[in-house]
Amino acid sequence: MTAASVRIESVTKRFSGHTAVNHLSMEIAAGGIFGLLGPNGAGKSTTIRLIMGILEPDEGRIVLFDSPHKSRALSQRIGYLPEERGLYKKMKVLDHLIFLGETKGIGRADARRRAQAWLERLGVSDWALKKVEDLSKGMQQKVQFAGALLHEPELVILDEPFSGLDPVNAQVMKDIVVAIAAEGRTVLFSTHVMEQAERMCDHIAIIARGEMVVNGTVAQVKEDFGGRHVALGFTHDKALAANILADRALVAHVDDYGASAELQMADGADPERLLAALVREGVGLRRFEVVEPSLHAIFIAKVGADAASAHAGVAA
Amino acid sequence: MKKVIAVVRREFVERVRTKAFVISTVLLPVFMVAIMFVPILLMSGGDRTSRVAVVDASSTGLGQPVSHALESEKIGSKPNAKARYTVQVFPATSEDVTKVRDGLIAKTGFSGDKHKDGWNGVLVLTDETLTTGKLSYYGGNVGSPESMTKLQRTVSNALAGVRLGKSGVDAALVKRAMAPADMDTTKVSEGKLTGQSGQESFLIAYIMGFILYIAILIYGQQTMTSVIEEKTSRIMEVLTSSLTPFEMLLGKVLGVGLAGLTQMAIWGGSIFVLSSQRVPLAGMFGMGADAAQSFPIPSMPPGLLVVFLLYFALGFMLYGALYAAIGAMCNTIQETQQYAIFVTVFIIVGFFAVFALIKDPTGPLGITMSYIPFFAPFTMPVRWSLTSVPPLELVVSLALMVAALLACVWLAARIYRTGILMYGKKPSWRELWRWIRA
Fold first, then answer.
1. Which strands form A229-234's sheet, in the order they lie side by side?
2. What pLDDT digit, counting tens, does each position of B119-157 carry?
3. CB distance A86–B14 less than 8 Å?
4. For chain A, what are the domain ranges?
5. Domain layout of chain B by residue ranges
6. Which CATH number fits domain A227-292: 1.10.150.240, 3.30.70.100, 3.40.50.12710, 2.60.40.10?
7. If you average pLDDT over residues B1-17, what whole number do you get?
8. Would you call A103 and B244 a contact, using CB atoms and an 8 Å cutoff?
9. Assembly ipTM
10. Contact residues, chain A, for B6 at CB < 8 Å
11. A206 neighbors A192 (Cβ within 8 angstroms)
12. Sequence-distant (≥ 6) Cβ neighbours of residue A289 within 8 angstroms
């Protein structure tokens, strides 16, 4: 049993009138990438701010590294990229990174060396002596990213790290996150982009309305979700498939993307029967594959259902 | 502590690097030079020797004693000083006085080398001059009160001498009788001479009050602005995850304060250099030593300097913490105004109390205000410079200041803790109270 980096014990946080986080419990084990997923307003950022000690929980408690200290005392071991990015606009990039390093308790000379190395790594070393305000948004985000990682923290908490980045920069960030995990450090990041989480995370938690919906390793979550799923890719005559896909004895649920679709088979239905029917009707297929359910499908199903049951609860 | 130093350094370096800081730091001494020398330059009309034509239309030969008196005037008090005037007497009669005068006026008032034989002024003496003291002067420098006062004084003395001589008074006696009174004022403290002149301690009191007023108003507000900036740029969230509110607050107030002190030190240094070097400087501006000497040098005794710096630092931090707390409560500069006005009122009352104190430094107003921490930074150094303050009073006042400072920083840190992450709504007074208690 590895030690937990973060242990959240039945934490509740209320803001005037509404409950942002409701009796949430979870454990983030040391090492690996942990994805905190949820729709907008689910309480992801509030949870992260609670972990960071920026907000105090109304109920419950949060333990970091199994230590009795609060996150501020442990801040040398934690790197944090907030959702609301912010830097001193008038400061020079290098000076800014040195300052951020110093606030984490690194000596000045050491901070300078590390800052230069990070700027090099992120391909923005030409901008080291420019003011932050002269940088593009994407570059500012890289700088902030470097600021969060400068002190080589063993726990890295990233709130929506990939939002607002172009594919090239997103790739750079992704590589860094993966490299951190490969070094045995812990990464916790929040996102609502499921594909990313699916590809990167070892462990995920989906929260909605401040409550835990799904929690576990990606494989576990998929297995628990169950059912047989088929991914389809159409070339022509997709309209001919409409009747078959509407057959509830065969297909339980369709997620239609136009040129492709993800199906959940009805209980006991055989995917081979589906394929035979599609071929018989003359639907042009470029892909037919029995797959694990995508995180996206699980998310939609779970959060959608959660929303529905919440409504039912209100109605009852 | 290392983190606080990092915050202090950042605040200081970023502030000192701004163009606004550099420009204001350099411009003020330039203005000071201008303020010191331009009026002197304008008023003195020259410590150059003036060429004066004396038109003597009197029947008693007044021109002779007047020109003699004028010629004996020197510029400055050195033995080899230049004569203030070169004089030529033009005798005239009451009939042709106008003609002679107008002929001379035609050659008067040319600047510099244009008219080598031109006159700086024409002095017209008539019989009436001796009886009623009435005489006329026509010149290019009549706009300079200093020159006119000097000229008038010299002529008056000459006339008085002539009148006394006519009444049979001995010339040597006249000269002795006419010697002017020359009063030096010196401040006494606890039965000891302090070496300051009355004018100097007044000037010092005024300058100290003014420096504190300006520093707190400008730099206190900067502390507030910089907190607002951190809130709007959202950098606060990163900072607050690694720094305690107390560290942030302390670092900010100290950093901004140091930047302010640096500027003050540069300004103070240039005042010192300017005033100690004023004679050569005046020379550079083409003025004689005499004009520059009319400017008093304020010198600060070490005891006063210590008291001033102590109160300056304490006062600055006290107000800085309050301003920072206001910044934490608000989201925009506009919003801060309604809270900042309370603080500003304290500063203004403190500053204007200095004027009352200069008149009556030992009165109950001054003593009371020295015990109120918000006013003490203004009143105490002024009282110290003008009178002798009992040591116990100083100790009590300082102790109260330190206590108030700790209370204010504690209060501000409480507000800071909650306020810095509040975006959007401005807190009501009741909410504010909750933040403090929380």
1. A251-256, A260-265, A229-234, A285-291
2. 888 888 888 888 888 888 888 777 777 778 888 888 888
3. no
4. 4-216, 227-292
5. 2-40+196-437, 48-176
6. 3.30.70.100
7. 87
8. no
9. 0.74
10. 99, 102-103, 108
11. no
12. A230, A231
